[in-house]
Amino acid sequence: MNKNLPLMSMFYLISLMGMISSNNWFMFWIFMEMNSLCFIPLMLIKKTKKGGEASLLYFIVQGISSMFLLMAMINEESSLMDVSEPNSSLITVAFLKMGAGVFFNWLFLLSFSITLSILLLILTLQKLSGFFLLLLSQAGLSYLMLIFIFLSSFMAMFINMKQNLFKSMLTVSSLSNTSWLLTAVVTTYSGWMFYFAVYSFSLVLSSTMNNKYLDQNYRNSDTLENPLLFLSMGGLPPMPGFFPKILILMNLSYSRLSLLSIFLLLAACVDIFIYLRFSFTSALKNNGNLMYCKAVTTKSIKMLSLSAVTMVTMMAIML
Amino acid sequence: MRYFSILILLIMLSLPLMMFSFLGAVDLAVLFVLFLFTIFTGGPIFFISEILFFDKISFLLIILSFWLFSLMFLLGQKYKILKVSLMKYKMYMYILMSFIVFSVMFSDLMAFYIFFEISLVPLVFIILGWGYQVERVQAFFYLFLYTMFGSLPLLFFFLLTYSYLSLDWLMLYYLKNYSENFVLLLFLAMMIAFFIKLPLYGFHLWLPKAHVEAPVSGSMILAAVLLKLSLYGFYRVSPLMKPLFFFFFFALVFLFWGALLSSLVCLRQTDMKSLIAYSSVGHMGVMLGGFFFFSQMGLKAAIIIMMSHAFCSSALFYLVNFHYERSYSRQIFNNRGQFIFFGMLMSFWFLFLAINFSAPPFLSLVGELGVFISSFGKDLTYMYVLGLASFVVAAFCIYLFSVVIHGLGLKHYILQVEMDLNFFVLSYHFLPALLMVLLLDFF
């Protein structure tokens, strides 16, 4: 246990709060820097083989993006103290920070050399800075945005087909979820919030459960909640993961964005395929003995009841 | 009032079922409640509450699913012996049944869609959990991805409908100011989703795989109830399709031609289960084709084929499984000459194959005649395709019968006798299929 951990995590949370509540670009930039500087020591708490390399990579990417943000602020005329018209460089900074579209590769490289908990932080909380950049700059559904949305889900589809590690699968599928989130963040704010909350929750839940097994491709044979959680993340109808999606889709259908929404839905279909490929072993009943499995029954029963309760509540809200 | 006759018949039939299983009693109770509803509220549509209702087609589907699921619980008894969890099997069956029943009872389009989709999940878990071979994983992916790929775009178009008007089924009759372009797109999305679920020949690849890998109860439910939900969906959305009726004739060509082709595929099948799966592809094509004429007779014929095919295909899958449990093979040539061993059961083979190719006294004949008559009223060229298709169906039924029953038997069976359970299950498939001919005025 590192002595600096409480301080670091406090500053980390403060930086997130500050980023959310700042009303001019300069303060936003300061809190963004603070955020990445607090996060890098957090990455180094648990020593891994390539931890130093990973933190350096993270620092470089965040440094470049903050530099771009500074330049974008200076370039704009009405700029420094004002939330003004979005320009494409601001949007690009956001994409770079959250690893959307063509900027995905640094995130993918990073995912191999960090621990699972840090990866979960990067996939959920660290993306907030990018999304709040987009929210503050009031970016609309411009061509650049559309290109990155399409690219994200395309790339996620094709890269994810050949992944067989759980961590890298999560990373790539977060890319396709990023395309949903980007669509939401420029069309419907409440849909974005709902989607982000449900996605982060189910991501953390599924990966903490998965962490119990030594070999991450095979799981305990008699549990149901793993496929259910993954189906929820893929967005099969009555699961919790479906409702933010339907909220976003309803907004898209009001503004008649048929092509985008059908594309996103078909990408979600591929997502479900990927998630199921990682979870179907737990649905096979008479499958001989799986050697490298530890059964964690009491905990999984709790999880099952939790997810069942969530499901039922969501259905009640729906009906 | 016409609901009385069919309800009284089914209540009388389900009395002995009650003795065997708990769900038999539930079945009886549900039938009785429906009976009370038909007494106290008149008219063609019965509202149970603000969001639940049933009319003729959903009434039939509810009764069908209760009937078949109570038999499934009987079949589950063998998992007691096989040390596979009986409790979980029952749980999945209850979940699946409630999803199917809810999906046909909700008056809301979105609720129908959700239950239609989620009914896939317990089925998938039944296939994965209680299937026989490793190939069930592939079958699972086929089943899941085909269905999802079709029905996710449909979700978007249902949402578009929502932006025009409420999603109540009955309100669709009053939908006025929509553009034809929108209806065309909705129509195409529905076509793809429900044709995959049906399945139309060409979208059918998941069905033989799923049937081959599924345990007997899974494939019985899949053939008997789940495939029929696509007819239900088309029936409910048909008021929207008024400006596009001409377009359905293109679909008709595919449906009937697909029926012929799948029957031809049956002739060269050696796997008994996939043979019956392909034959149900053909029957489903004829069923939806009858509905697509949008005449009274076509609709009635489609519903009649729906009922008769539910009982007959489910019983045929049960018979195939009977032989599988004894010879551990679904191959037709490993199961030949069975008359020596199982004489009584062969009469059921004969009867259900007769129902399958619509021999005279049974319900399926009435349905197919209805489809023929309504198609000849439109265009006589349907005659060639439909006539040839029904001939080929008869041909493969006779082929299956002759190989399984006649000839020299192989002698490496496990000598399990024909049990009471088999006769019970089969006669509970046969009796409704036979006795409903007496109640034709209901349909």
TrEMBL record, chain A:
<keyword id="KW-1133">Transmembrane helix</keyword>
<protein>
    <recommendedName>
        <fullName>NADH-ubiquinone oxidoreductase chain 2</fullName>
        <ecNumber>7.1.1.2</ecNumber>
    </recommendedName>
</protein>
<keyword id="KW-0830">Ubiquinone</keyword>
<keyword id="KW-0520">NAD</keyword>
<feature type="domain" description="NADH:quinone oxidoreductase/Mrp antiporter transmembrane">
    <location>
        <begin position="22"/>
        <end position="267"/>
    </location>
</feature>
<dbReference type="GO" id="GO:0008137">
    <property type="term" value="F:NADH dehydrogenase (ubiquinone) activity"/>
</dbReference>
<feature type="transmembrane region" description="Helical">
    <location>
        <begin position="227"/>
        <end position="247"/>
    </location>
</feature>
<keyword id="KW-0679">Respiratory chain</keyword>
<comment type="similarity">
    <text>Belongs to the complex I subunit 2 family.</text>
</comment>
<feature type="transmembrane region" description="Helical">
    <location>
        <begin position="103"/>
        <end position="125"/>
    </location>
</feature>
<dbReference type="GO" id="GO:0005743">
    <property type="term" value="C:mitochondrial inner membrane"/>
</dbReference>
<feature type="transmembrane region" description="Helical">
    <location>
        <begin position="132"/>
        <end position="159"/>
    </location>
</feature>
<keyword id="KW-0813">Transport</keyword>
<feature type="transmembrane region" description="Helical">
    <location>
        <begin position="179"/>
        <end position="206"/>
    </location>
</feature>
<dbReference type="GO" id="GO:0006120">
    <property type="term" value="P:mitochondrial electron transport, NADH to ubiquinone"/>
</dbReference>
<feature type="transmembrane region" description="Helical">
    <location>
        <begin position="56"/>
        <end position="74"/>
    </location>
</feature>
<keyword id="KW-0249">Electron transport</keyword>
<dbReference type="InterPro" id="IPR050175">
    <property type="entry name" value="Complex_I_Subunit_2"/>
</dbReference>
<keyword id="KW-0496">Mitochondrion</keyword>
<dbReference type="Pfam" id="PF00361">
    <property type="entry name" value="Proton_antipo_M"/>
</dbReference>
<keyword id="KW-0472">Membrane</keyword>
<keyword id="KW-1278">Translocase</keyword>
TrEMBL record, chain B:
<feature type="transmembrane region" description="Helical">
    <location>
        <begin position="6"/>
        <end position="23"/>
    </location>
</feature>
<keyword id="KW-0249">Electron transport</keyword>
<keyword id="KW-0813">Transport</keyword>
<feature type="transmembrane region" description="Helical">
    <location>
        <begin position="340"/>
        <end position="363"/>
    </location>
</feature>
<feature type="transmembrane region" description="Helical">
    <location>
        <begin position="301"/>
        <end position="320"/>
    </location>
</feature>
<feature type="transmembrane region" description="Helical">
    <location>
        <begin position="112"/>
        <end position="132"/>
    </location>
</feature>
<keyword id="KW-0496">Mitochondrion</keyword>
<keyword id="KW-0830">Ubiquinone</keyword>
<feature type="transmembrane region" description="Helical">
    <location>
        <begin position="89"/>
        <end position="106"/>
    </location>
</feature>
<dbReference type="GO" id="GO:0008137">
    <property type="term" value="F:NADH dehydrogenase (ubiquinone) activity"/>
</dbReference>
<feature type="transmembrane region" description="Helical">
    <location>
        <begin position="383"/>
        <end position="409"/>
    </location>
</feature>
<feature type="transmembrane region" description="Helical">
    <location>
        <begin position="139"/>
        <end position="162"/>
    </location>
</feature>
<keyword id="KW-0520">NAD</keyword>
<feature type="transmembrane region" description="Helical">
    <location>
        <begin position="244"/>
        <end position="267"/>
    </location>
</feature>
<keyword id="KW-0812">Transmembrane</keyword>
<dbReference type="GO" id="GO:0042773">
    <property type="term" value="P:ATP synthesis coupled electron transport"/>
</dbReference>
<feature type="transmembrane region" description="Helical">
    <location>
        <begin position="59"/>
        <end position="77"/>
    </location>
</feature>
<feature type="transmembrane region" description="Helical">
    <location>
        <begin position="182"/>
        <end position="207"/>
    </location>
</feature>
<dbReference type="GO" id="GO:0031966">
    <property type="term" value="C:mitochondrial membrane"/>
</dbReference>
<dbReference type="InterPro" id="IPR003918">
    <property type="entry name" value="NADH_UbQ_OxRdtase"/>
</dbReference>
<feature type="transmembrane region" description="Helical">
    <location>
        <begin position="219"/>
        <end position="238"/>
    </location>
</feature>
<protein>
    <recommendedName>
        <fullName>NADH-ubiquinone oxidoreductase chain 4</fullName>
        <ecNumber>7.1.1.2</ecNumber>
    </recommendedName>
</protein>
